[in-house]
Amino acid sequence: MAEGRIRAYAVAASVFALDRVTKTIVERRVSESAAYPVIPGFFDIVHTENHGVAFGVFNDSAFEWRTLALIVVSVAAVIFVSAYLWRARHIDGATLWGLALILGGAAGNAFDRVVSGRVTDFLDVYIGVYHWPTFNVADSCVVVGSGLLILDMLRTKRQAANVS
């Protein structure tokens, strides 16, 4: 289990590093008014600043403690997932990698909130006038990690039902 934990923390650190590198490149090289088509009509690189949470939720909130509340929740999530990974005795592969991706992504966005009170988003997916909210590497990893956890829970539930 110790080797699996080390790998999970290494994956989380890699996600964090990739998230920081990509956000830094966008912050330095892409103006907030620019859009760089990668796949025309479907995917652009843009530069937006999100003061809320995933998908812009609370971005326009007037709550004066919004940033502090989001920092506390983000840091608590990082601590919780880190501690869970450290203390868990038996974690299968999908759960381990899901938690590693969530940890790295949560740490990336928590870092942004602590340092600047906002998160840089830059991946813009759309079809015609239908846009998915702009996101970043950290958001992607949290979503994929959550998907792995859900799939593992469904698989475990199905296995338990077959045993009964």
Notes on the structure:
With 164 residues, the protein is of the alpha+beta class. The protein has one domain (2-163). It contains four helices and four strands. A four-stranded antiparallel β-sheet has the order 1-2-3-4. Helix 1 runs parallel beside helix 3 (93-116), helix 2 runs antiparallel to helix 3 (93-116) and helix 3 packs antiparallel against helix 4 (137-163). The longest helix is centred in the N-terminal third of the chain and has 28 residues, at 2-29. It is globular. The protein starts with a helix and ends with a helix. The model has no long low-confidence stretch (mean pLDDT 88).
Keyphrases for this structure?
164 residues, 4 helices, 15% strand, single chain, globular, alpha+beta
